[in-house]
Amino acid sequence: MLGILKKPLRKMIAGSPWVYRMNTGSCNGCDVELATVALCPRYDTSRFGVKLSGSPKHADIVVITGPMTIRCKDAAYRIFSQIPEPKVVMTVGNCPISGNVFQDSYAVDPPISKHFPVDVSVAGCPPSPWAILDGFVKCIEIWENRIAEKLD
Amino acid sequence: MLQVLEKLFNLFVFPGFFFMAIIGLYFVGIHRKIVARIQRRIGPPIDQPFKDFAKLMIKEDVTPQGAAKGLFTLAPYITIIGVVIGMMFIPVGIPAPLDTAGAFLVLLYLITAAAVGVMVAGSASSSPYAAVGVSREMALVIAYDLSLIVIFLTVAVKAVAIETATGGAAADLLNFSINSIVSAQASRPFILDWTMLPALLAFLMIIPANLGLAPFDVVEAETEIVEGPMIEFSGYRLALLQLGSAMKAFFICSVVVVFFFPGGIVAGAGLGSIVINAIWHILKAWVVYFLAGTLVSASFGRRRVDQAVKFYLTVPLVLSILSLGLVLAKVG
């Protein structure tokens, strides 16, 4: 009986991905592009249902910036475990991919995919707002697939 | 038996839980859309709150270890139960299901009880951010409750004055039932009475603080204290908290409608007139929400908690005392 409701239910649930931004030692360049441009009223991600949430417990899409610095590794793991399933992980910038300019530093531990399961990576230093928005759209597609899996 | 079934229908379907849930969530959706348009962007679709609710129901529930187990589970239901029972005292198309003498005072209590729900939720989470949110909410509630009591007093005194003037039954005086308030406005609703206008203005000023809308949304949606009292809630608990908040919006706007401009447009007790009168009530409540909630929140930035408390202890209090004075002096 629930089968016939699945498709509209899936569309309904996928229409509300909330975003939590996690900064693991970034230089703030990507955070500036993210929180003050891509998630601001001008580029209007709220038409996709995206809302910037203040608490990790309210999040669906986790956006990670920065290479994982050694000092914040414990905190990052703790916060990540508090984000309820199902979730989608997106990294913004070159640092989470390879460490970028901080590559051989003793204080960082790139790439992020070593610590967390990353779904979407947006490259750039910093990536343009349009690239970040494109990343969001791809995240929302993956989010819809995860919802479909969970409903089955 | 039929009476019990009818009351249960009133409690759960109309004008109780389901009716309030759907209308309340649509109120919030329309509010977000209008605010977006005022800010020259597209904004979320109108049924966005339904999508949020559906998504939150399937999310995993992460409960902090130090949270007070019983209260953490109970807290989201307090607001919902408070506003559903409060709605039982309000006539929406049909006469109020639970109207008795003294219903007026119970309504005052239930409005505050709905705010207590948020406080209990914040206190039950073991988080310092939530504690800060709770203390801010307490300060704000104390500040605007003062004006709310004076407004209720003004409405009651005016209703009694009109009943005495038109020679209503002696038993109706000091009855404090919602019916007496509504019937006192049968000839002329209070909104058309210039002595009641300051009280209406004060009530409209209280609405943003009650519903957590700008400029007095210092309690929740807080970039400083990470969403305040709701920080530790996730999954279905958060869904219920947000549902309670949406239902509270419809409830408080209905209270404003009943106190200042009640009445249907079609007389009679048939199903058709009930539907038309209910839709008329929803429209009136939405106009109140639009003026006091949407327009105000799209135009103002957030006030600090001390600025908010200082505002509520001055402007609405002076306005409501002015109205009380005018009504007591039997002017106009």
Describe this structure in words.
The complex is a heterodimer of chains A (152) and B (332). Chain A has 152 residues and is α/β, with parallel strands linked by helices. Chain A has one domain: Rossmann fold, CATH 3.40.50.12280. Helices cover 38% and strands 14% of the residues of chain A. Chain A has helices at 3-14, 29-38, 73-81, 95-98, 129-151, and strands at 18-23, 51-52, 61-65, 88-92, 120-122. In chain A, helix 1 runs antiparallel to helix 5 and helix 2 packs across helix 5 (129-151). The two termini of chain A are 13 Å apart. Chain B has one domain. By secondary structure, chain B is mostly helical. The radius of gyration of chain B is 20 Å and the shape is globular. Chain B has helices spanning 2-12, 17-38, 48-58, 69-87, 103-124, 128-165, 178-184, 197-211, 236-260, 271-299, 305-312, 315-328. Helix content of chain B is 67%, strand content 0%. Chains A and B meet through helix 1 and helix 5 of A and helix 3 of B.
